[in-house]
Amino acid sequence: MSETKTDTAFIRETEEEPRMPGHETALDRKPEWKPRFPGSGRLEGKVAIVTGGDSGIGRATAVLFAREGAKVAIAYLKEDDDAQITADAIADEGSEALLHKGDLGDPDVGKALVDKVIGKWGRLDVLVNNAGEQHPDEDVTDITREQLQRTFQTNIFSMFYLVQAARPHLKKGAAIVNCTSVTMYKGAPILLDYSATKGAITAFTRSLSENLVGDGIRVNAVAPGPIWTPLNPCGGQPPEEMDDFGKDTPMGRPGEPNEVAPAFLFLACEDSSYMSGQVLHPNGGIIVTS
C-alpha cells in the first residue's frame, strides 16, 4: 500500500491502474464517436461543459453538441492528444472548443473550469458530468483505502464540486446531465467501489432535480451499459475478459459512444423539457428497474 493518507482532502492518482483512463488513439479498434445524423440546431447558442470529453462517451457527446450548435468546454485529466482530436472535431462542426486539463476531484480545478467558460463565453447552459474511473477487484478486501477514496473523489465528489461552481451561472432552462451506469441497477461483482459511486450519482441526480426544478433547471442522468471506450481495455476490466466484453447483453455486443451520446443530447435540449430526475438506459437491451 502506498503512503498516501486518506485523511487528506484530495487523493492523487493511485498506482492501481497506471494506464487509466487511457488513450483512445492507442486502441487497436477505435470507438465510433462521430455523430451519425445531421444536426437540427437543438443547442443553438448554448454553452456546454462536458467532463471526460477527450475520448469515449464524452467525446461523442461533445462533438454531437457542437453539431447541434453548442460551444463546448472539454475537461480532461491528461490525454492531450485525445483532447485535441475532440477540439478539432468540434471546430470541424463549425463551433468553438475550450480545453481544460486537470483532476476534477480537486475542487479548485472545477472552479477554474467554470471561471474559464464564463470568462470566454459569458454563460453556461448545460453541464454534463461524465468523467469517471474504475478499478476491478475480485475481493472486497483488495480495495485499498486510497483506491476507495480516489474512486469516490473522481466519480461523485467531482460532480458536487462542479455543480457548486456552476450553480451561480445556471439560469432557467439550464440542464445538468450526469453519467451513472447499468452497474448501479444490476451490480458488478468486480466493481464494488465503482458501482457504489454510480448508486450515489443516481441518488444525487434525483435529489438535485428536486432541489433545482423549481428554478427551471432540469437534472437527469444516463446509465450506459458496456460501451467500447478506453476506460475498459486500459485497465477498467481484467484483460482476460476483454474478448467477451459486452457479449452478455441481449444485443450480444458492446455499444459505441455515438449510440450513447444522443441520450445526453435529448436530456440537454428542450426535447426533454418535461423530464427531470430521470435516467435513460442505453445498455444493449438489459432490463433494469429504474
Automatic annotation (TrEMBL):
GO MF annotations in UniProt:
oxidoreductase activity, acting on CH-OH group of donors
Biased composition of type Basic and acidic residues is found at 1-35
What keyword terms does UniProt attach to this protein? Oxidoreductase
Asked if the record carries the keyword Cell membrane, the reply is no
| A Pfam short name | adh_short_C2
Q: Does the keyword Transferase apply?
A: no
Which stretches are annotated as coiled coil? none
Checking PANTHER family in the record gives:
NADPH-DEPENDENT ALDEHYDE REDUCTASE 1, CHLOROPLASTIC (PTHR48107:SF16), NADPH-DEPENDENT ALDEHYDE REDUCTASE-LIKE PROTEIN, CHLOROPLASTIC-RELATED (PTHR48107)
Q: What is the name of the protein in this document?
A: SDR family oxidoreductase
